[in-house]
Amino acid sequence: MMYRHERYRATLRSPIEFNGVGIHSGKPVRMRVCPLYSDGGIVFKRTDVKQGEQLIELSPESVVDPVLCTRVVNGDGVSVAVVEHLLAAFRICRITDAMVEIDGEEVPGMDGSAAVFVNKFNDTGLKYRNSKVPVIAVARPIVVRSGNGELSISPSKKFSVSVELQYERVRAVVGKHNSHSFSFDDDLSNIAAARTFGWLDDYHQIRARGFALGSSEENTIVIFEDGAIMNAGGLRHEKEIVMHKCLDLIGDLSVLGCDILGSIKAVNPSHALNNLLITEITKNFRAPENEEVTSPSAVCSYL
What we know:
By secondary structure, this protein is α+β, with helices and mostly antiparallel strands. It starts with 7 loop residues before the first strand and ends with a strand. α1 packs parallel to α2, α1 crosses α6 and α6 packs parallel to α7. The strands form five sheets. Strands 11, 12, 13, 14, 15, 18 and 19 form a seven-stranded mixed sheet that branches. Strands 2-3-9-4-5 form a five-stranded mixed sheet, covered by helices on one side. The protein has a three-stranded antiparallel sheet with strand order 6-7-8, with no helix packed on it. The protein contains seven helices and 19 strands.
């Protein structure tokens, strides 16, 4: 069955520069997001790399080791980590094509959310193009599980998401505000502003693994074991914790390079689990170029 869905490709009107520190690497980084006037999607360019390919083209196959963040890599092993908040900002702002020039291994963490990116993208404005964004319509349910997490997508005439966090630790922080539902027709400003979070008791263990080296109260919600918030001012929104998981999911799904018609239900999602769902979608369906597929046996239909 074919559904009516149209969205035109768009890029920024002019370049924007961001400077900050990587939340995991702890290293300063300069990033310049530039217009891309082709159907090239999102492309990263490691300007600090002197040997090997600098460009990393975003695709499901480019994602590697999605632990505590999403990292993309090219055939020469050149990578960029923590791309999910930037990718979510692109999707929220309807940007489909951009060249991201970056002089380090990780996207700057800014305040731990996508708000800085979204605000600057909106201030700069977009230039729309005549070509349309490809769409995948889910034809039958797909379910992936890992540990205590489960992610499913079912056929629908539009894209919608429902996320629920069932961890007792989360309930100690937010109580009943542990779930959130949204679609791209909604105002997503609160999701864009939802920050990365973590528990103080886990901090040293995570740092020993090479993560959170640049984490601070400036870019992370720091939670005590009893559920109290260390950050001055507390949470920005009563659902900020679960909304950040929504933000991560938006960003992670962006590696597909297309829009999705389907209803997603996520319980305790993670970057690894999000990537499992993407893998199942791409494994079961690949769209021939310039061709519509409506086979009822396909997991998805390309519109």
